[in-house]
Amino acid sequence: MKNIVVLDGHTANPGDCSWEALEALGHVTVHTRTTSELVAERAAEADIVLTNKAVLDAATLAQLPRLQLISVMATGYNVVDVAAAQKQGITVCNVRGYAANSVAQHVFALVLELTNHVAKHSQHTASGGWAASPDWSYTLSPMTELADKTMGIYGFGQIGQRVADIALAFGMKVIATHKHPERDRRAGVDFVSFEKLLAKSDVLSLHAPLTADNQGIMNSISLAQMKGTALLINTGRGGLVVEADLKKALDAGTIAAAGLDVLLEEPPRNGNDLLGLPNCIITPHNAWATREARQRLIAESVENVRAFLAGAPRNVVGSSSVGS
Fold this sequence. Notes:
Layout: E1 3-6, H1 20-23, E2 27-30, H2 39-43, E3 48-51, H3 58-61, E4 69-72, H4 82-87, E5 91-93, H5 100-116, H6 118-126, E6 150-154, H7 158-169, E7 173-177, E8 189-191, H8 194-200, E9 203-206, H9 220-224, E10 231-234, H10 243-252, E11 257-260, E12 280-282, H11 291-309
């Protein structure tokens, strides 16, 4: 029986899901969280490790000669030194597509908050603002209709495609930039250059994996090419955005507002200049975390382990992505 260790199970399963299917495959130990100092100790007797954000770097892997499989409970796998794992004969796999619906839904939660200001109006009503108003209807901030606006999508994978579906349902025009426009062409979506994406988008939503080529792609130069009324939404990777440049753009009115679910440092224990800006809303990297998505994540992780034990590994990754 294989020893299976889950290093940081809490985010995927804070108690509302089950590890039962995984427990049928071996002797399972689930840790809610594991600090970097404890990773090698807790994984020492593991044949299989499941990790979300607990890092398995080359130095740690060198202490784990028994380890055969690392299944990352996420799409991005930069927490693993894949090259070092491959040298040790350790298979590395990930989970893809489990949160496309949830992340796309969150994109529009951010967009709608920035266009309809629901929380602001609700809080004002609760504090007596409506009761004290001389008018039966009022707005605290301008409200914007999405129909006929242009949704720009940077990265047209599964999540970007779901965002397009929802945007089209709102009556928006959809443009996108993508590495494979012919393969993923669909009705209602125009593929354009990155420069045109910046210039034409009323809402620009980021969905490309983070690579060395696009790190910091949203910077002072690209932000300056956007409309002054545009919204920037990032539920992808914090590293796609140069945060200092975004703050300057928001302060100067270069763009109207931003909605972010990801930051460079997560959690932002050292502070972040974007926190507290009136035209920037930030959620704690939870776009993926609906119960339905987490159930799929666990189920797919179990299938990764099952396939490996059957001698047919699935979702095996290489070493090119730097996504998180």
